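Let's sit down with a protein and look at its sequence and fold side by side. Please make up or recall a protein chain and show it to me in full. Label the sequence line and the structure token line clearly, so we can match residues to local backbone shapes. Go ahead whenever you are ready, and we will take it from there.
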Amino acid sequence: MNTSDLISIVEAETNWAPDVAAWLVKIMKSAMIKELLKGEPVKLQGLGTLSVRRRKARSITCIETGKEISLPSQRYVHFTPASSLKKDLNP
């Protein structure tokens, strides 16, 4: 499923115009991104939780050249599925 699929579903379920459904999806996506950028988790009941985690800085060895490369620390989004979703996926 991608954004246009989600817009189509919102449009079909609510009988809203396509531009209104697109606006709603855009607002929801924007609100979720803002919370994640603040470091706050986004909890969606029945689906799961999106949270920001940090990878430590580390060094790796390039396979092609054999040189050591330094990777800086990074933030990334982590998804933890809800227990009800886990149960539905693995009956």
Q: What stands out?
A: Residues 4 and 22 are 8 Å apart (CA to CA). The beta strands are 42-44, 48-55, 58-61, 68-71, 74-81. The mean pLDDT is 95. The helical segments are 3-14, 18-37, 83-89.
